[in-house]
Write a structure and sequence with these properties.
Strand content: 15-25%
Structural class: alpha+beta
Number of strands: 16
Largest sheet: 6 strands, antiparallel
Number of helices: 18
Helix content: 40-55%
Radius of gyration: 54 Å
Shape: rod-shaped
Oligomer: single chain
Length: about 575
């Protein structure tokens, strides 16, 4: 009446199967979930894969859905992270830095067990450390789950444990002579208690530390039965591919149970050590940041050194968190660096200073040099524009100041500076005075014309004796220029270089000119005007008996009547 294999009934049901199932689907899911909680465990991997697919293939829509709650999720995540971090830090400190932690380390060493296992034994009544799902027929590992997901178990420990379990399974589950299978429920090791629950096609093994209660074995039994129900097909058709069992983490998680020991005080310890360390780290970080900010402020202030006359900033950079390396060039007449730092409230101990000297041609520094020079001449002052001098000097002081100005770096026109100065003892040269002046002029000319400087063979360098003679000659030449000015005469100096007969004519002519130029340049350094010095070379002086005397520089003074415009 029902047909073979009930096809009449099944056919009628299939026609309205969708309507029948939809009428009771929600209620059936709820009833099954209330009965054994299996709906959640089955749906979890399906939902995970659906979300993974949406994230990979519909990113924009997925982000749009999540955007309104992202802020709340981030805040909660950060709060949870900080809370967990504090708790873990406190637990680490309590187990490592306290007397109790050190005592546990000693006892763990004495017992010959790992410190982590000993801590677990002292903290928990029991704890399931790891769960293994093993195929019964082949002994292959289908999946495993550890209590601490963030730490990876030791590979040797897992290998030896699985090998032992595989041997146990292979040897223990062979049928007896009467056809009944032998069973092995518990295996004890030094570190763990291994609890085995066998099903028709798979074996569930749990590694437990501490005193295991019966409810752990009961949970393993429920889980192995549930796995056989959900994965009956993959277990029956297993060919070595374990990917089908990757989603059974939810079932294995139910087996990772633990129970803390009761605390004697009944109060939860506060993570005061972790808070102290965090406060110290925060203080250290704040101090470091403050020092960096302070040193950077010094560097920013020091940049203003480039605006100071006579100071050139080469480098200002941070060295560590408390010091600034400072390299500068400073003119001797510029403001001292330590004075500048003090004025800007920069501590000298925070500065590592490297200072080198140079001559600045800035107007402020030139005026500073002038004021320093004029301190030797109380009657002279520098005008406000810095272009001229005012005051009154004697004739002798006037000549001395003129010579000093000619040697002062940066002063290019001493005559203009000296023009407004009054001469206090200026006299009109009478005939007798003129005769006396001319006598002195002739005497100076005679001294200069009789001076000669000798050079070494094939050399243009002045010897020490020649430098002394040249310094004396420069003094006479300055005096001659001063006397010539009073007598309204123009004076020029001819510097004549010569060589001996060794070498070719052309080479000796060049050598004689270079000797004359060396002497001319040195006289300019002594303050003689360049327009009064003329250097020439005459080449070879072919005097057989002259010897070294032919390698000379000679001098000749030419005087002419000064024009009226210069008088």
């Amino acid at each position: 009446m029902f047909g073979e294999e009930n096809q009449h009934i099944t056919g009628a049901i299939r026609q309205d199967a969708r309507q029948i199932v939809s009428d009771v689907f929600s209620e059936a899911l709820k009833d099954r979930q209330d009965r054994d909680g299996s709906v959640k465990k089955v749906m979890t991997p399906l939902v995970d894969k659906s979300v993974e697919y949406s994230v990979a293939n519909r990113k924009e829509q997925f982000v749009g859905y999540l955007y309104p709650i992202v802020g709340s999720v981030v805040r909660k995540s950060v709060t949870a992270f900080l809370t967990e971090f504090i708790e873990r830090t406190n637990q680490l400190l309590e187990n490592s830095l306290t007397i109790k932690g050190l005592t546990w380390r000693v006892k763990a060493r004495q017992a010959g067990v790992p410190y982590a296992n000993y801590v677990a034994s002292q903290t928990f009544n029991y704890r399931v450390e790891q769960v293994f799902l093993i195929h019964r027929e082949t002994g292959l590992l289908l999946n495993s789950l550890a209590y601490n997901q963030q730490s990876s178990a030791d590979a040797d420990l897992i290998s030896s444990m699985l090998t032992a379990i595989n041997d146990f399974v292979s040897d223990s589950f062979k049928p007896n002579a009467d056809g009944n299978e032998q069973g092995l429920d518990i295996v004890k090791t030094d570190d763990f208690t291994l609890v085995l629950k066998a099903g028709p096609r798979a074996v569930l093994v749990a590694a437990v530390t501490g005193n295991m209660p019966q409810r752990v074995a009961d949970q393993l039994q429920l889980t192995i039965e549930e796995i056989h129900t959900l994965y009956e097909g993959p277990l029956a058709d297993f060919n070595g591919d374990t990917s089908a069992f990757a989603d059974c983490d939810q079932q294995l998680t139910d087996c990772l149970v633990s129970e803390l020991k009761d605390q004697a005080t009944g109060k939860k310890s506060k993570p005061w050590m972790a808070w102290c360390i965090l406060i110290l780290l925060a203080c250290g970080t704040s101090f470091y940041a403050y020092k960096l900010w302070l040193v950077q402020g010094y560097i920013n202030q020091i940049q203003a050194l480039n605006q100071e006359p006579g100071i050139m900033l080469i480098r200002a950079q941070r060295d560590g968190i408390q010091e600034v390396k400072l390299d500068i060039l400073r003119d001797p007449d510029a403001q001292p660096i330590n004075t500048w730092l003090e004025a800007h409230e920069i501590p000298a101990e925070a500065i590592s200073l490297t200072e080198k000297r140079f001559l600045s041609l800035e107007s402020q520094i030139i005026h500073a040099r002038l004021r320093d020079l004029l301190s030797n001449y109380p009657g002279i002052a520098l005008t406000s524009d810095g272009n001229t001098l005012t005051g009154e000097l004697t004739q002798q002081q006037h000549h001395a100041l003129s010579a000093d100005l000619a040697q002062l770096p940066g002063v290019t026109d001493p005559k203009t500076l000296l023009a407004p100065i009054q001469i206090s003892d200026k006299q009109t040269l009478e005939l007798g005075a003129k005769d006396s002046a001319m006598t002195l002029i002739k005497l100076k000319i005679s001294l200069i014309n009789s001076t000669s400087l000798e050079f070494a063979s094939n050399s243009t360098q002045l010897s020490p004796q020649a430098e002394q003679s040249l310094a004396s000659l420069a003094s006479h030449a300055k005096a001659l220029l001063s006397l010539a000015g009073q007598a309204q005469l123009d004076v020029s100096f001819i510097i004549i270089g010569a060589s001996d007969a060794k070498g070719s004519q052309s080479y000796n002519e060049v050598l004689s000119i270079k000797r004359a130029q060396t002497v001319r340049d040195t006289l300019q350094e002594y303050g003689l005007p360049s327009d009064k010095l003329n250097a020439i070379g005459i080449g070879i002086i072919d005097v057989p008996d002259a010897g070294n005397g032919a390698r000379k520089v000679l001098f000749n003074v030419i005087t002419t009547q000064a024009s009226r415009s210069n008088g």
